[in-house]
Amino acid sequence: MVTLLYFLFWVVRETWGLSGKRVQDYTLYTGALGTAYLVFNAYQVTKNENDLKLCSDIVKACDSASKDSGRVTFICGRAGICALGAVIAKHSGDARLQDHYLTKFKEIRFPSDLPNELLYGRAGFLWACSFLNKHIGKETLSTIRMRAVVDEIIKSGRRLAGKGTCPLMYEWHGKKYWGAAHGLAGIMHVLMDMELKPDEVEDVKGTLRYMIKSRYPTGNYPSSEGSESDRLVHWCHGAPGVTLTLVKAAEVFGDKEFLQAAVDAGEVVWKRGLLKRVGICHGISGNAYVFLSLYRLTGKVEYLYRAKAFASFLSDRAQKLISERKMHGGDHPYSLFEGMGGMAYLFLDMGEPSKARFPAYEI
């Protein structure tokens, strides 16, 4: 508990307290909104009203800093600020502020060149819709609005796939990525939360089966279509992000093939996932969520043990190894997705592992 409070204190101090409460990076990924999301998780554990007030203050600053932003997603755009702001306002009992953020959310417009992936694209906007509908109420964001976005994602995926063996395919900056952040795993993960037509369900299943069939002999997954570099074992690229998506597929479809593939990918993370970085996106903290997800799916305590092993390594050794330059603290060392903020989020979730969810990915 002392370790957790220490990390929470330092993250808030470094990202908010020392900034004079001025926001330069408003994103959840590396900026102040990530701190707000972390503090909101702390509030859900402690029910401390001071945490809720701090969270609301940070979101208001992010709202102001992002008012001219054209980014539309939860992790890197306006949708995250408006969605989290509305949910916090609901918990605070502030109906006027909740309506303010919901109105701002519904005013979000897509640029013409919007991609489909999670961090900057349509999937990232849809995730924000699901977040609102979970925390505020069904149809907070209407099925009709979400359906229009799903239509664009499906149409785009089928068009790029053409007559290939994978039903859906997507590009980001000209590359056909597979991972959770920019590619197939992230887009399929979000689509499984949508109301899909039968043929669309089959396309999602077929895409996941294509990925399973095309994995490396080691069990790891390529970062992009055709890549032969079996190197990355991260949430953003490789087996960890794909595992979380396969767990979701096993839950949604009840298919043993997806369950077995998730278990197989989890073994890759156990063998190769103790990385030299601490963060959620491409570090040990994010990889620990693979085991928490498998624990939730299977009930097998070996996965809980593995999650605890990764978390304990971070708690016991990360700071010392970073100081000795044997580990990388992240380019944004206190942020949610790259640094100590992700560690603190994981430590909070380890208190009640059956309820743990990878932040801004698992609903």
From TrEMBL:
Keywords per UniProt: Metal-binding, Signal, Zinc
SUPFAM superfamilies: LanC-like
Membrane-spanning intervals of the chain: none
GO cellular component labels: plasma membrane
Family: Belongs to the LanC-like protein family.
A biological process term (GO) from this entry: carbohydrate metabolic process
Superkingdom of the organism of origin: Eukaryota
Signal peptide limits: 1-17
Designated name of the protein: LanC-like protein GCR2 isoform X2
Protein encoded by which gene: LOC110419282
Chain sites annotated for binding Zn(2+): C236, C281, H282
Native source organism of the sequence: Herrania umbratica
GO molecular function, one term: metal ion binding
